[in-house]
Design goal:
Layout: H1 10-17, H2 19-35, H3 38-53, H4 56-108, H5 112-129, H6 132-139, H7 143-153, H8 155-201, H9 204-209, H10 213-265, H11 271-293, H12 295-314, E1 331-338, E2 348-355, E3 359-365, H13 371-379, E4 385-391, E5 394-395, H14 401-404, E6 408-411, H15 422-426, H16 434-443, H17 447-451, H18 470-482, E7 488-492, H19 500-515, E8 519-523, E9 535-540, E10 543-548, H20 550-562, H21 571-574
Parallel strand pairs: 3-8, 3-9, 6-7, 7-8
Antiparallel strand pairs: 1-2, 1-4, 4-5, 9-10
Helix pairs in contact: 2-4, 3-4, 3-11, 4-5, 4-12, 5-12, 6-11, 7-8, 7-11, 8-10, 8-11, 8-12, 10-11, 16-18
């Protein structure tokens, strides 16, 4: 899907929707920062008035007022933290479902790396917006006010505050500039290590059975060594900046106290003002110190924002057209071509066909001819294709996918089931209609087999159907495809793992679907499936090689074999293993 650069990003819009919460945090921050002046004023009163007058009543009054102000300050701090936490929850409510949909479309578009980082990026951004770093940003505008207070006490103290503020800002800028590239490289190395390990763990049985563990471990160690080296570099930089920041902070406290003492000796400052200046200086530089120590969080949140914004712009909301009436099921492909990322040659080129309701189209071809890609194009899940795919004369991409999905049945070559019960998988993870579930299972010849399971239809199938055999997974996938009486069915190698009984059930399912007026595409390498066809499409190197009624296509293939233009195995070779 093309990037829409002319519309405001959904992420920016969601953050703008939180402006009320951010305004409230700003107001509470104003109250908290004003009330934080209370300890400074208290010290001035105690050292310059109470100790001089020796009045216990004055001390008690000033102490009670200060205590009340500190209670109000704590309340303002608590309330702004609560508002930020609520803003994080609202951000998730505004954007969580939208981000999930974009991740799903990106996965369909084979952008796996983008999908794996999207949800962690969203968590990173939300935690930054609701954490201490965000509070430091709201405190930052009050730094000039505290510095002005130091100037009021004495210009030298104000100048010291500005000097230390510049040093802290320089440290933050230096850390940002030096860490940007290493942090990005570290993130990429970590993703590479995680992706490599997860992909190999999915083939643990092959690794163990053929003694491939040593080689796998060696390759993992090479990748992990690269990650550790980059991680060590980033950590060294982080620790260096942290050490310098601590030195600046401790030096500031000592130097301000020393400068205040010098002014007291010179008679330009009172002892109370000296102590108050030290507290005020610490408070003035606290937001800068917090931002310096959290520069990595800020950098990570900024990068996460950019990646999320790019993802959401690349996969905008689908407008969709409401299904006012149930489609009839006329499928038309006009000059369809398909490509894959990282592959120069096209997978499909100039494929055109028409299929009417109540017809069965059998797609044949050798391995790599593009049959499975054609199946994905027909159901609208192949990301990069050209030409037109029409349903009842309207582009398939224009229909609302949530509504159209119930009218499409798709059995992929590699059947993937979901963690849940048998009934939940057949019902497509929606609300279970027992009558429809049982009807689909009966049509797939699966009902008796399910009843023999430990808990029948309520039997958990494990992660990705790990508790079932390949044939059982395929038949449950077939039942899922025909659940709810869809009008369009695309079955990619539906009999790859079926026994004789399963083959018979499949034949019966296809015949029933045709009798009900469904549009069926059957991709298979089994010769007997041609007998079910109303039309046969033979692909060769991504192009239509032959197309027409079964008898005509088979006769052409046999004639080509006899003339030496096709492999010696004839029709069986033309219907070889799936793409």
């Amino acid at each position: 899907m093309k990037k829409n650069a002319h519309t405001r990003g959904d992420l920016t819009a969601a953050l703008w929707a939180l402006r009320g919460e951010f305004l409230a945090v700003g107001l509470f921050s104003m109250a908290a920062n004003l009330l934080m002046l209370a300890p400074t004023l208290y010290m001035l009163q105690v050292y310059d008035r109470v100790l001089v007058s020796r009045s216990v009543l004055t001390l008690l009054t000033v102490s009670l007022i200060t205590l009340l102000l500190l209670v109000l300050m704590a309340g303002a701090e608590y309330l702004r933290s609560r508002v930020l936490v609520g803003a994080g929850l609202r951000l998730h409510a505004l954007l969580g479902a939208r981000l999930f949909g974009a991740c799903f479309e990106a996965h369909l578009g084979q952008a796996g790396a983008v999908v794996r980082s999207a949800l962690p990026d969203f968590t990173e951004l939300r935690q930054f917006l609701t954490g201490h770093s965000a509070l430091a940003v709201f405190d930052l505008p009050w730094v000039p006010i505290y510095v002005a207070g130091l100037f009021f006490l004495h210009p030298m103290l104000g100048a010291l505050a500005i000097g230390f503020a510049l040093v802290q800002a320089s440290l933050a800028w230096f850390g940002h500039r030096r860490s940007m590239a290493p942090a990005q490289a570290l993130s990429e190395a970590q993703s590479e290590v995680d992706d490599y390990l997860q992909s190999k763990l999915r083939n643990a049985e092959v690794v163990e059975s053929m003694g491939m563990l040593a080689g796998l471990k060696r390759r993992w160690q090479e990748r992990h060594g690269t990650y550790l080296a980059r991680h060590a570099g980033v950590q060294r930089l982080t620790h260096s900046i942290t050490a310098w920041s601590k030195w600046v902070r401790y030096s500031q406290q000592s130097l301000v106290l020393g400068a205040g003492a010098l002014l007291v000796i010179d008679g330009q400052l009172s002892p109370g003002a000296m102590i108050a200046a030290n507290v005020l200086m610490s408070r003035a530089l606290a937001p800068l110190d917090m931002l310096t120590s959290s520069w990595r969080s800020f950098l990570a949140a900024s990068q996460a924002f950019d990646r999320l914004q790019t993802l959401l712009r690349a996969y905008p909301r689908r407008p969709g057209e409401a299904l006012r009436v149930r489609p009839a099921g006329f499928i038309t492909l006009k000059n369809v071509g398909a490509r894959a990322a990282g592959r120069a040659a096209s997978i499909l080129e100039q494929v055109s066909l028409q299929a009417e309701p109540g017809s069965v189209t059998v797609v044949l071809g050798s391995s790599g001819s593009g049959k499975s890609t054609l199946a994905r194009v027909i159901v609208g899940v192949w990301p990069d294709f050209q030409g037109e795919v029409l349903l009842d004369g309207q582009p398939l991409a224009g229909w609302d996918r949530g509504q159209l999905g119930s009218q499409v049945g798709y059995l992929p070559q590699e059947v993937e089931l979901f963690d849940g019960t048998v009934a939940e998988n057949i019902a497509r993870l929606a609300a279970i209609d027992p009558d429809k579930v049982i009807a689909a299972a009966r049509s797939a010849g699966l009902h008796q087999m399910i009843l023999r399971l430990a808990q029948g239809y309520e039997t958990p199938i494990g992660d990705a159907g790990s508790m079932l055999s390949g044939g059982q997974r395929q038949r449950i996938g077939l039942a899922r495809a025909i659940y709810g009486d869809p009008l369009l069915l695309v079955l990619d190698e539906p009999n790859a793992n079926l026994d004789e009984a399963g083959e018979a059930a499949l034949v019966q399912v296809v015949q029933e679907l045709r009798a009900k007026g469904k549009t069926v595409f059957l991709i298979t390498h089994r010769p007997d499936a041609v007998a079910l066809a109303d039309q046969v499409l033979v692909l060769r190197a991504g192009r239509v090689h032959l197309q027409g009624p079964p008898a005509q296509v088979l006769a052409a293939l046999e004639e080509a074999r006899q003339a030496g233009r096709a492999p010696a195995s004839g029709v069986a070779a033309a219907q070889a293993a799936p793409a």
